[in-house]
């Protein structure tokens, strides 16, 4: 298999013409949806460049929040041969195997009111299985070890502000070079669902830095903007390129929403107390509200930004707003629901390329935009061409 070490942190301003970005939203077990899409994308890249290539070979930065942060680490953490620990096709089997243990099913004996009261007694899950799993898989690998730039947002409940983990910054600041397992646990610590997470790092002079983290979705459930220069630090080594948005190729993957179901309304919410906001028929309206809001605001900003420079085709957002029932739960890890989530991802590939209508909050097909599968195939060709150009320029430098 090809060594991936030479691909680490290729500088687009030197080796290529484009800045390539992959962004993956948070959403718990619904990470199966982008996992299905990533498997398709990697297969198209392999058709063009060979079975040994991986997604990390093609993206200058991969950003992920919560479950998206876990997928990001899976795709970029190196094995002994400096190849990614996981290929994209490994994501779904990973969720199928570990999802039911990360989100164990309740005994079914609690009545709805008892469940609401139970949410006030502590997180829904203790998180022990997830923490052990991540430590076992990622071991002593740190942010700087990632095979390409990665960005994973969290929220520090002690400082009441976002803490953004960047593998680029980790190379220059040891206090930010946390273990990948710690970062993944922190970004996945969804309020109500998992306990918050504390750890500390130490720099070369022995100074310690503390982190008191909850889910990155509190700040940036859709982390696409964090991969762009104005709000991120992925490209501080190439400022002239970073502000030229026409140079970006961005794929942003959602984990689905239940907007079309319209399961909440003002009449209902007007009567809710604390318990209702925290727990409602297997969901948390409060968590839904802040994650959906931040997700759509980022998508809207990205779409308007690329439209303003007439490069709309350089930004591909794939999202499903038609989830209903158990499909929309972030912790429903039954075999039946996980199978349904795969089917949703496969259906999304066949759906037309769509963009957010800010007035309705729903995604609408783009005229003559083709399907998401066709768009990803087009992106795969551009990514392969960009990689080829970089190799040629590097060889002749």
Automatic annotation (TrEMBL):
Recorded coiled-coil stretches: none
Gene3D superfamilies listed in its UniProt record: Cytosolic phospholipase A2 catalytic domain
Motif GXGXXG: where in chain: 26-31
Short sequence motif named GXSXG, residue ranges: 64-68
PROSITE patterns linked: PNPLA
E.C. number(s) listed in UniProt: 3.1.1.-
Keyword field contains Lipid metabolism: yes
Stated role: Lipolytic acyl hydrolase (LAH).
Sequence similarity: Belongs to the patatin family.
Domain free text: The nitrogen atoms of the two glycine residues in the GGXR motif define the oxyanion hole, and stabilize the oxyanion that forms during the nucleophilic attack by the catalytic serine during substrate cleavage.
Protein name: Patatin
Species in which this protein is naturally found: Protea cynaroides
């Amino acid at each position: 298999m090809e060594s991936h070490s030479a691909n680490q942190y290729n500088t687009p301003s030197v080796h290529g013409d484009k800045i390539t970005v992959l962004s993956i939203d948070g959403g718990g077990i619904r990470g199966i949806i982008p996992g299905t899409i990533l498997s398709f994308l990697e297969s198209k890249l392999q058709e063009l460049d060979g079975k040994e290539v991986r997604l990390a070979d093609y993206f200058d930065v991969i950003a992920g929040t919560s479950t998206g942060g876990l997928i990001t680490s899976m795709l970029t953490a190196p094995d002994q041969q400096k190849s990614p620990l996981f290929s994209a096709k490994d994501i779904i089997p990973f969720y199928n195997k570990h999802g039911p243990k990360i989100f164990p099913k309740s005994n079914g004996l609690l009545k709805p009111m008892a469940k609401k009261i139970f949410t006030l007694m502590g997180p829904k899950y203790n998180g022990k299985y997830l923490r052990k799993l991540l430590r076992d898989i990622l071991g002593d690998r740190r942010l700087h070890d990632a095979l390409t730039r990665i960005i994973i947002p969290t929220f520090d409940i002690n400082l009441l502000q976002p803490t953004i983990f960047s593998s680029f910054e980790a190379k220059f600041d040891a206090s930010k070079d946390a273990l990948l397992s710690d970062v993944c646990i922190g970004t996945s610590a969804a309020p109500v669902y998992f306990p918050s997470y504390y750890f500390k790092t130490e720099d070369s002079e022995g100074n310690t830095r503390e982190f008191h983290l909850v889910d990155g979705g509190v700040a940036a459930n859709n982390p696409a903007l964090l991969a762009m220069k104005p709000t991120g630090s992925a490209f501080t080594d190439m400022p002239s390129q970073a502000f030229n948005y026409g140079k970006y190729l961005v794929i942003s993957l959602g984990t689905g929403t239940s907007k079309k179901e319209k399961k909440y309304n003002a009449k209902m919410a007007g009567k809710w107390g604390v318990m209702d906001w925290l727990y409602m028929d297997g969901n948390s309206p409060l968590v839904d509200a802040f994650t959906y809001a931040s997700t759509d605001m980022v998508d809207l900003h990205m779409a308007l930004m690329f439209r303003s420079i007439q490069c709309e085709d350089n930004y591909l957002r794939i999202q499903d707003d038609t989830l209903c029932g158990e499909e929309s739960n972030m912790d429903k890890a039954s075999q039946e629901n996980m199978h349904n989530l795969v089917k949703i991802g496969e259906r999304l590939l066949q759906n037309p390329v769509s963009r957010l209508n800010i007035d309705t909050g729903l995604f609408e097909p783009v005229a003559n935009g083709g399907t998401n599968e066709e768009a990803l195939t087009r992106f795969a060709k551009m990514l392969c061409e960009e990689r080829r150009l970089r190799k040629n320029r590097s060889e002749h430098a």
